[in-house]
Amino acid sequence: MFSKSFVNRICQAIWRITWVPSVQHPRFIVPAVGIGKVQAAGKKDYIDLPALNEDELDEQFVRGSGPGGQATNKTSNCVVLRHNPTGIVVKCHQTRSVETNRKRARQIMREKLEVIYKGEESDILKNKKESIQRKQDKRKKANENLVKKRLFKEALMADSKSVDDRG
Amino acid sequence: MWIRLRRSLNGFYNRVDPLIVRCIGHKRLYTFHSPGVAECIPAIPTDYRLTVQECVTLWTRHFQLRGVSEPRLSSQYIIAHLLGVKTLESLGQDRLAEFLTHKQMEQTWKLCTRRLTRMPVQYVIEEWDFRDLTLKMSPPVFIPRPETEELVGLMLADLQVKQGTGVSEEANLRCLEVGCGTGAISLSLLNSLPQLRAIALDKNKDAVELTVENAHSLGLQDRLEVHHMDVIRDADMIVRMCSPVSVLVSNPPYLFSEDMASLDPEVHKFEDHDALDGGVDGMQVIRHILTLAPQLLSNNGRVYLEVDPRHPPFIQLWAEGGERGLRYVHTHHDFTGRPRFCVLENDNATYIKTRTSI
């Protein structure tokens, strides 16, 4: 279509104008979902998590300085998400998909913001406390059962011994 | 005599190599299969076992020694895969301290040795993730890039907005993908849109077979047709067989021929060059797709392309040149801020029904 050198010259100019690496805030395209009540990761009850404003977020990726895309095959997909108003930083490299890591980073960010905004009243903290309490209760009960079983066995052996003695 | 000299030199290297001693603390870790430290492969320990963490560390150091890119990540992904998980992060600290069985160590050595040839991790473990799907990977079929995940996200957002307007013909939503590779784009769309039917084309027979295999693994084969076709050579047949479709999508080869030689060995040695090389200006295949698009698309149908960051202005210029049958909608940037995706819409009003030359 155009000569190679012309293409290159135009590209140098346009690239400088339209592409400024890691300063822009690319809009993260999320399908329209209801904001507000969201199921927090791993929890049974629905919790009110604060909505995220993409304009307040800074995202960083490791994708190199070249043209990216087809030219490179890098497996690093760590996402670093920064919430500017509060300064909270979330790092996520839980999965092998960049998009999934971005979604999870946002979910974790929402949970962290919930804790910050609600303080003592935070549902997330309450859930955590409840689950720790439940585990402690469970352990206590299990131990009590073991003690009961042991005493029962000892009583049984003592009984059978006294029967032997008498017989 | 020469052999005896080499053996004693090997012994010397074994005792004093600071990297090995620091790494694990065991002596005689290396045997030499050919001259030079750079050529060695660590020997599998036979009289002791390694923990998961020690194995990762050992191979990270070795990849670093041999100049393999992403040494730590390569080691982590390979060993995680052998342990049946996607990432090491998903294992707890206690599992990282567990010993590997001898069989697991053998498998680790086998796969890590492949990585030493600069084979991409995705080909070494023969799988990779794309959005919420796990796909089989097989050389030389092109490995999906993370940018392309955004292309699918972009399409889904547009299609969901369209559905919101209650257009009844979307009940028969049809999509055509040119250059499907592993099938990532089509399968991801099918997985997210239960009412979609897709046709995928590729000129490489391996890609066609791999897409079919992935479709079956995901249970999506009933809504996907895959054809071994070349968008340039088989243009007429494609129009006859496939039109009309509501959506046309492609991640076509878009690299500039002059850039092919400077690609990383992972890409250059192992991936299909036909899936990368877009000709002198990187737009050879793009041009053909845009020429065919008006004949393939239904009213207001859209074409979505992933391109080189230098391409969007030229594509926009071309579309606005008049009588192309396509209206330029938007350029979207990828997560690194580079102009990456072009969206055009079928515009019958300006289309002249002869093949327009570019």
TrEMBL record, chain A:
A cellular component term, taken from the record's GO annotations: mitochondrion
SUPFAM superfamilies registered for this protein in UniProt: Release factor (SSF75620)
Domain named Prokaryotic-type class I peptide chain release factors: residues: 51-145
Main location, first listed in the record: mitochondrion
A GO MF label: translation release factor activity
Cited Pfam families: RF-1
Keywords for the protein's UniProt record, in alphabetical order: Coiled coil, Methylation, Mitochondrion, Protein biosynthesis, Transit peptide
Similarity field: Belongs to the prokaryotic/mitochondrial release factor family.
Protein name (Swiss-Prot/TrEMBL): Mitochondrial translation release factor in rescue
Gene from which this protein is expressed: CL065
Automatic annotation (TrEMBL), chain B:
Listed InterPro entries: DNA_methylase_N6_adenine_CS (IPR002052), HemK-like (IPR004556), N5-glutamine_MTase (IPR050320), PrmC_N (IPR040758), SAM-dependent_MTases_sf (IPR029063), Small_mtfrase_dom (IPR007848)
Gene Ontology molecular function terms on file: nucleic acid binding; peptide chain release factor N(5)-glutamine methyltransferase activity
GO CC field: mitochondrion
Domain Release factor glutamine methyltransferase N-terminal: 58-125
Domain of life where this protein originates: Eukaryota
Biological processes per GO annotation: methylation
Annotated catalysed reactions: L-glutaminyl-[peptide chain release factor] + S-adenosyl-L-methionine = N(5)-methyl-L-glutaminyl-[peptide chain release factor] + S-adenosyl-L-homocysteine + H(+)
SUPFAM superfamilies linked to this entry: S-adenosyl-L-methionine-dependent methyltransferases (SSF53335)
CDD domains: AdoMet_MTases
Domain Methyltransferase small intervals: 171-254
Keywords, alphabetical: Methyltransferase, S-adenosyl-L-methionine, Transferase
A Pfam family: MTS
UniProt-listed Enzyme Commission number(s): 2.1.1.297
Full protein name: peptide chain release factor N(5)-glutamine methyltransferase
Gene source species: Esox lucius
Taxonomic classification: Eukaryota, Metazoa, Chordata, Craniata, Vertebrata
